[in-house]
Amino acid sequence: MLRGLRRAEPAVRADVLEFLARHQSADLIDEIMTTSGLYVGPLELLAQQEMALRGWYGLSWPTANGGSGASTAVTTALVECLEYYLAPRIPPTAEYVAPMIIRHGTAEQQADWLPQILDGRMHVALGYSEPEAGTDLASLRSRARRAATGWTLDGEKVWNSHAHRCTHELLALRTGSVADRHRGVSLFLVPIDLKGISYHEIETWGDVRTNRLVLDGVEVPDSALLGEVDQGWRCIVGALERERISLGTSGHLLRLFDEFIAAARWTQEQGRAVSEETMNGLRTYWPRLLGCHRLAVAAARRVDEGEPAATEACMLKVSTTELRSEFAAWAIVAASRFQQLPPGSLLESLPEWLYRRAPFHRFGGGTNEVLRDIIAQRGIGLTRAADPALAVDR
Ligand SMILES: Cc1cc2nc3c(=O)[nH]c(=O)nc-3n(C[C@H](O)[C@H](O)[C@H](O)COP(=O)(O)OP(=O)(O)OC[C@H]3O[C@@H](n4cnc5c(N)ncnc54)[C@H](O)[C@@H]3O)c2cc1C
């Protein structure tokens, strides 16, 4: 089942099929489900190395930067397919950070960082959020100050996911005044093992390890600054469309659905009936799942055609991530209604795994409440209901 990949070049399709034939196994799926939020296990590492060797980390990058120049449609289809087979995902560093470097980095930064990302040696943790700056990121206070030979960094970041297994940090830091809001923020990309950087574990319910990060007089050279001083916001926002499309892919949900279909068929072949509630649920969820899949195709196509796609990316991300929570919660109950599951069925583990990680998808890449505001304003031309001065019916 390659769904969206049908639209990809035959060479990409063949590459994916060959990769799956070599790496896909129940052991890899088990390893990913039990460890991937915490550390990279040996099977996942092997699969990741092979993905990097096949050039998938740079699939969407321009060929001038060492990538394959594939369309957003093909990249999105690959992400969906990897999700469907519960394979490792393309690392966020390759998917969201590298395009920032390609767009805003100097020639030296590109020459230094991109080859390391392409072959999987460089992994970047995103250091945006702070204890008092989450959704309202423009109020962040951690600072970068000019020093004799570069910059000195001080402050605290929170929810710094995977820092413990990353080689670098991408830090959003205040270089202007706090009153400047998003106009006084700059980005710095620094090795994580610099003197003055420490991180401390935060355990989460979704089995994803995230961290509190402390910056204590960290000295970095000018070459750590990514983009212009005070222009970091532009870089961050520019990467969000791609991230939202990626978070909105429905490979995991399509797989969960297909696991139910397989279990239902097997149950019927055994001469037992499948509960009416389960059949009704599947009939209800199928068109919604297909809708999300098609929204992803449409959003990717708009990007490839050079059309503005911010609204479509938000609609996709909100729809898929909320369906993810709802469908996974339903699946936990529905899976327990089967007296017996077919051998190798993922219904024992997949529903809970998806359910526990679902909250992250709802606020990652921008919380859904704020994305709804964007859809309302840009997509349907409504003013912000939260601001009484702008309410349309005053
Ligand atoms: C497991 C995990 C991993 C994370 N990983 C990272 C990471 O790697 N790097 C990183 O920088 N950050 C990361 N984050 C932070 C994440 O992006 C923030 O949690 C998110 O931006 C929300 O910020 P907050 O927690 O401060 O909540 P708040 O901003 O306080 O929001 C709380 C609630 O209020 C709602 N709300 C807030 N503002 C508005 C508004 N204007 N309109 C409508 N509703 C609103 C929100 O939707 C939310 O439900 C992670 C968080 C978690 C829990």
Explain what you see.
The chain is of the alpha+beta class. It has 3 domains: 3-90, no CATH class; 124-231, Butyryl-CoA Dehydrogenase, subunit A, domain 2 (Beta Barrel); 248-390, Butyryl-CoA Dehydrogenase, subunit A, domain 3. It is 49% helix and 13% strand. The protein is built from 12 helices and 8 strands. The strands form 2 sheets. It has a 4-stranded mixed β-sheet with strand order 1-4-5-8, with helices on one face. The chain has a 4-stranded antiparallel β-sheet with strand order 2-3-7-6, with no helix packed on it. It is globular and about 80 Å long. It starts with 9 loop residues before the first helix and ends in a 15-residue tail after the last helix. The model is unreliable at 389-394 (pLDDT under 50). Bound molecules: flavin-adenine dinucleotide. Flavin-adenine dinucleotide binds at residues 126-129, 134-135, 159-161, 204, 208, 210, 360, 363, 367, 369-370.
CATH superfamily of the largest domain: Butyryl-CoA Dehydrogenase, subunit A, domain 3
How many domain modules?
Answer: 3
The CATH class assignment of the largest domain is Mainly Alpha
Q: Give the ligands present.
A: flavin-adenine dinucleotide
The separation of the N and C termini measures 53 Å
- In terms of DSSP E residues, the strand content is 5-15%
Mean pLDDT: 93
Spell the H/E element sequence.
Answer: HHHHHHEEEEEEEEHHHHHH
In CATH, the topology of the largest domain is named: Butyryl-CoA Dehydrogenase, subunit A, domain 3
Structural class: alpha+beta
Spatial sequence of strands, sheet with the most strands? 1-4-5-8
In quaternary terms, these chains amount to single chain
Overall 3D shape? globular
